[in-house]
Amino acid sequence: MRFVSTRDGGLRSSFSDALLHPAAPDGGLWFPEPIACFRDLSRLLDMPFLERAVEILVRLLGDEFRREDLAAVTETAFDFPVPVVEVRDRIFALELFHGPSFAFKDFGARFLASVLERLLPDARPRTILTATSGDTGAAAALAFGQRPGFQVVVLYPKGRVSPLQEHQFAALGGNVRAFAVEGSFDDCHAMVRTCLADAGLARQLNFVSANSLNVARLIAQVPYYFEAVARVRDTCFRDAPVIAVPCGNFGDLFAGLWAQRMGLPVKAFVVATNLNSAVPGFLETGTWRARPSVPTLSNAMDVTEPSNWERVLRLFPAEGDGTTLAAMRRALRWGALTDEETKKALWELNGAGYRADPHGAVAFGVLQERLGLNETGIFLATAHPAKFKPMLDEMGIDVATPPNLAQVLARPIRAESIPANLGALMQALGL
Ligand SMILES: *Cc1c(COP(=O)(O)O)cnc(C)c1O
Fold this sequence. Notes:
With 431 residues, this protein is α/β, with parallel strands linked by helices. It is built from 19 helices and 14 strands.
């Protein structure tokens, strides 16, 4: 399939080139166009997850790669379960946290690693450069950490990720270097984008970004939306389900909308955020109010300049007399929770016998507010609750820590602190 720039639709790229050069030359992001559509949906929904994921990827990437190779990549990347759990009548959790880093970022990071290793061995970059609000760093570090020929550089906002998240990428050592940046996630992300935009630097570093501005990440997230719908089909009667997505950089929401454009029946997507709520504010009022990011309990969503919003906007061109905003308001529902409301959602879920993490809880809380009578809702449970154990303990919610997560905490942190500018990073990397 082909990709065009979100800004100049005349700029085109193959998937491989878009993966290796995630920023378009005009500063835009790669956007799939045209979007392939499935006509044989019920056959597809009947398949088991892996088989279906291969079908989807062959449909999307079959012009660049052979089916056998895509199947091998899919099987190595998605080698963990993707359960759908009913948490109360007609509300389901799509659990995306059963991979090695215990968050959904494993889908994208493991897929990226697998594609680079198997499908593009000659074009292999040396450095995987990643800004993280908490979970991308761990997923990238674990996906690439043991692979010879790669070094992983993780930038994260100092003091704004949970201790466990920090241990997952900053205590690995080896070919993983972690930098605690004195700033916000938005600052870290801006550093990655500046690197991407600088051709000279990109050559010197020979790097690829594992952030969701990379289309490889997003493609890897399309198949689990099909799984969600396939598993709840029977409870929906004739209606399609409503899916709530806990949003930070809006890559996950974009992947969901992409799946919907491929023909997946979804009645509406619910944009769920914490108080970093620029997008719900925009959908509500029609104006974009930039504010500095505030730290919240759902820290991986503490993003105020979501880079994938540009991609989402391109899915909703103005039509007839309608504006883009009107089209978005028809397709989306939205809401934002305070930390207090997030805690209420966590307690409520706990009362129903389900332990969630704060990100999933935000999605659940907003879904409950926006779900109509007789509708079936699914929320994305994006991280394992054990990643937030100290906070949940304080709230009286008991979660067991999986053994391999407990081991991670025993290792010392080896992060280097740097100010939020590229010069400091280059110096630290010896460039
Ligand atoms: C990254 C992350 C999010 C936000 O996903 P985006 O694709 O950036 O919107 C939500 N929950 C968790 C646990 C995350 O790590």
